[in-house]
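ok, trying the design again with the full structure, not the truncated one.
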């Protein structure tokens, strides 16, 4: 354009400057800046604001402020660009100083300043600015709501949500997402039901993904199935994000066939789709299907990543394919330039351990370029129990004690191995050692979905309103088991079960 002597105008420069900012081409941006000055467009607020954005995006805030300072005419967009530049580069003090000096503050500028405090995790200042803000719009409420959620203040998120006179899909998603990101999965389901019952707002794909994630964690399969039907009935059948959530939910709830059906019904698949189904199949022992899908994935032109190979190596582990596992492990680096992480090394140790190659597994751990963590040594300890290898088990326990000396579960595992070998003296010594740690084994928590509600309970737990009926049903089941010839095995050391209440 310049070579053909066509004169640029106020619409030309912003597009070119935005491109320079996106590409981090600041040298070219400075050249365009010179042309802006030459053609007399520095007084144009649109061009000036774009120059400020370009310099700010390249961390040249001083240059951005020089542009701002040289502008004779500034409007609210110019002030917003400069304040946003300071916030984006972590200078909240300068941003607030300019904010206080701004002759006009519209809702966008106020929301951006509030967002700046939220990004710095200063919710107190964000709330103060919000409280004095005139003419708050729904976006302002949602901005602060998400701020509480993202900063882990679930109570603050709840309180603000209740204050809101008007709510849209982003309000409900802010609350539901806040619960999900902070591990309050039962609350996710409660809020979702409330949304359906108390509002006219319809869930979108983000809502459904968060709800499916909660169903996955809680094992709420019936609700997950309902969400599946709802999604298909409301236009989300071909939504990749919802489909990926359904695959993950079905796989982790043990209904792998449904997960495969959802995967096969997808028109478009991304890397997450392939990774979720491959890992789901591998974890549930369907290694052959997982490896077949991996081959199909490569043939379709999708490049695997590190998560893909976790599923592939897990599949090999369940099938006892030691040589194939090493071949896949080596192909990570040789074919795809993927640097193995601690999770991949853990899969290889598990592969060798399950196959009974305990000495090779120990040698592999010693030669690893990263230090083995507790997960790897625990996997090896579990393999030692299967193959009754007390010597390697003691080595694994020694490493586990170094990594986590207060965890009594390590002693429990080795005591069970010694118990299987009828080495009762060693069992007694380990029980004393476990007692000397001063810690107790964390009891397992079970979840069960009944009548669309998820109940949790621990060993000897009597909090449930129908605990007498529950234990009565357990006693009946135990009598039926005994009458059919089943004999309980009480050899597990340190293992607790509510079934112990039967007698």
């Amino acid at each position: 354009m310049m070579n053909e002597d066509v004169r640029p105008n106020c619409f030309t420069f912003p597009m070119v400057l935005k491109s320079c900012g996106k590409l981090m081409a600041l040298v070219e941006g400075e050249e365009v800046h010179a042309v802006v000055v030459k053609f007399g467009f520095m007084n144009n607020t649109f061009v000036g604001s774009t120059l400020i954005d370009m310099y700010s995006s390249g961390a040249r805030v001083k240059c951005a402020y020089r542009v701002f300072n040289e502008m004779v005419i500034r409007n609210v967009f110019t002030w917003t660009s400069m304040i946003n530049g300071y916030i984006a580069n972590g200078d909240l003090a300068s941003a607030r100083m300019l904010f206080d000096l701004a002759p006009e503050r519209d809702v966008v500028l106020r929301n951006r300043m509030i967002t700046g405090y939220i990004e710095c995790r200063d919710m107190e200042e964000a709330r103060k600015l919000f409280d004095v803000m005139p003419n708050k719009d729904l976006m302002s409420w949602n901005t602060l709501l998400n701020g509480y959620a993202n900063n882990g203040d679930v109570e603050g998120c709840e309180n603000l949500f209740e204050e809101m006179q008007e709510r849209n899909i982003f309000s409900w998603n802010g609350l539901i997402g806040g619960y999900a990101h902070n591990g309050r999965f039962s609350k996710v389901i409660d809020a979702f039901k409330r949304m359906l019952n108390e509002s006219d707002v319809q869930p979108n794909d983000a809502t459904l993904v968060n709800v499916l994630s909660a169903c996955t964690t809680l094992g709420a399969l019936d609700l997950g199935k309902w969400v599946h039907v709802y999604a298909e009935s409301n236009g989300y059948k071909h939504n990749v994000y919802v489909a990926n959530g359904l695959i993950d939910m079905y796989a982790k709830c043990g209904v792998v066939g449904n997960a495969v059906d959802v995967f096969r019904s997808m028109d478009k698949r991304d890397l997450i789709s392939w990774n979720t189904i491959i890992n789901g199949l591998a974890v549930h022992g369907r290694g052959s299907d997982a490896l077949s899908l991996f081959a199909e994935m490569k043939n379709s032109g999708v490049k695997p990543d590190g998560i893909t190979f976790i599923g592939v190596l897990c599949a090999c582990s369940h099938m006892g394919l030691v040589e194939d596992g090493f071949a896949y492990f080596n192909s990570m680096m040789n074919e795809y330039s993927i640097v193995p992480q601690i999770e991949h090394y853990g899969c290889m140790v598990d592969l060798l351990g399950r196959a009974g190659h305990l000495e090779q597994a120990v040698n592999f751990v010693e030669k690893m370029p990263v230090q083995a963590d507790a997960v790897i040594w625990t996997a090896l300890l579990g393999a030692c129990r299967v193959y009754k290898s007390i010597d390697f088990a003691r080595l694994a326990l020694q490493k586990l004690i170094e990594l986590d000396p207060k965890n009594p579960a390590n002693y429990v595992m080795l005591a069970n191995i010694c118990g299987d070998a009828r080495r009762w003296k060693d069992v007694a010594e380990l029980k004393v050692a476990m007692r000397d740690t001063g810690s107790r084994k964390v009891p397992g928590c079970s979840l069960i979905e009944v009548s669309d509600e998820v109940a949790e309970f621990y060993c000897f737990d009597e909090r449930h309103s129908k605990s007498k009926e529950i234990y009565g049903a357990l006693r009946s089941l135990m009598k039926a088991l005994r009458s059919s010839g089943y004999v309980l095995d009480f050899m597990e050391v340190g293992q607790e079960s509510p079934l112990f209440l039967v007698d």
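Keeping the full-length input from now on. Confidence is low (pLDDT under 50) at residues 491-503.
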